[in-house]
Amino acid sequence: MRILILQHNRIENAGIFRQYLSEDGHDWLQVLLDEGENLPPLDGFDALWVMGGTMDAWEEVHYPWLRDEIELIGEAVEKRGMPFLGFCLGHQLLATALGGECAKSKQPEIGVLSVQLTEDGATGIIFDDIPDVFQCLQWHSSEVTKMPAGASCLATSPACSVQAMSWGPRAYSMQFHLGVDPEFVANWTAIPDHKLLLDAAYGENGISVLQSSCDDQMASFNNMAERVYINWLQATAQV
């Protein structure tokens, strides 16, 4: 497969997923939207991935390229039926592109926290062989508040009702982060906006607390990421 990966910060990349893609011989092009790189035409790509970012889905005045990105996501998913995978901001942008709504969270989620699969999530493809309740890395202060028509909620948490979503047979998105690798915490805490959220949640020892939590869960994080990656590939074969 040839995958188009949209990034909103150089550091917020596909993480451990890059290893799985390389091992399977897939090719990808990363586009750094916040650095002024242009969106390529969708022709020639087999799938679209959209990663996280510090901006909000509705901040088109401050980030004008969001308009074109949202339009591209809509074209890829709704018009072309391309396989899609989105995380954090990518989850919110999918909802926005398909007519859903996003807003600031009443309670931001920062750290390693629990998520529970819904009945649709537990019986569907993307979370096959994933526990009904699992630990994952959260780092967001905005969320999907209204899913687009035709979407299904696949996972939830007490602070965020739409933790994962599907639309059609081949579009999936998650509010949490699965591609965690050993450099994740160090890279992300170098971003001022992320560091502010972490400090607000954990105080001055936030980096060490989060790093320890991620280290403890790293094997589980990577196993889940590989399982979801395999499941997503299976879903891409659906008509």
Core attributes:
single chain; nine-stranded mixed sheet; 239 residues; alpha/beta; 7 helices
Overview of the molecule:
This protein is 35% helix and 29% strand. The protein has helices spanning 17-23, 65-79, 89-97, 119-123, 184-188, 192-202, 206-236, and strands at residues 2-7, 27-32, 47-50, 84-87, 101-117, 133-146, 151-157, 160-167, 171-174. A nine-stranded mixed beta sheet has the order 2-1-3-4-9-8-7-5-6. A hairpin with a 2-residue loop joins strand 7 (151-157) and strand 8 (160-167). Helix 2 (65-79) crosses helix 3. The radius of gyration is 16 Å and the shape is globular. It starts with a strand and ends with a helix. The mean pLDDT is 93.
Q: Unreliable segments (pLDDT under 50, ≥5 consecutive)?
A: none
Measured between the Cα atoms of the first and last residue, the distance is 16 Å
**N to C succession of SSEs:** EHEEHEHEHEEEEHHH
> Could you say which structural class the secondary elements and strand pairing correspond to?
alpha/beta
Rg measurement, Å: 16 Å
Describe the structure concisely.
Helix content is 35%, strand content 29%.
SSE layout and pairings?
Elements: E1 2-7, H1 17-23, E2 27-32, E3 47-50, H2 65-79, E4 84-87, H3 89-97, E5 101-117, H4 119-123, E6 133-146, E7 151-157, E8 160-167, E9 171-174, H5 184-188, H6 192-202, H7 206-236
Parallel strand pairs: 1-2, 1-3, 3-4, 4-9
Antiparallel strand pairs: 5-6, 5-7, 7-8, 8-9
Helix pairs in contact: 2-3
